[in-house]
Amino acid sequence: MSSINLDQLYRRVIMDHYKNPRNKGEIADGGLTIDMNNPTCGDRIHLTMQVEDGIVQDAKFDGEGCSISMASASMMTQTIKGKSVEDAVRMSKAFSDMMLGKELDEDLDLGDIEALSGVSQFPARIKCATLAWKAMEKGVDSDVNPN
User: Which residues form the NIF system FeS cluster assembly NifU N-terminal domain (predicted)?
Assistant: First the structure.
């Protein structure tokens, strides 16, 4: 597939997640709640997660932001559900590496998230793409290390 067609496909995937976000909302019965914002551009995320026995049972988000920020949150919540906290954090680290233009482990399947790989060419947008992931890391860290 040519790079132009791949770029168009990636744009479509990002816009689909932005216009039709997965897991938008809030988990009503408690769990982890994390609020973060990107003061540079005004993106904000409210992430709720239900973690039981080290497994992310559910993850939902709400917030405001650009298409990259909101699409990334949609993709992230979809990807981490059912994963161990360890795997979710490993995926977050891989995502951060991808945003920095580093090579990914070939065994790691990021699915739709790979559509955001082009963001690495726009340093000002990397914080937009990583906001939800940083919120997730903060949440699971606070669950493991409450003090």
Answer: 10-128
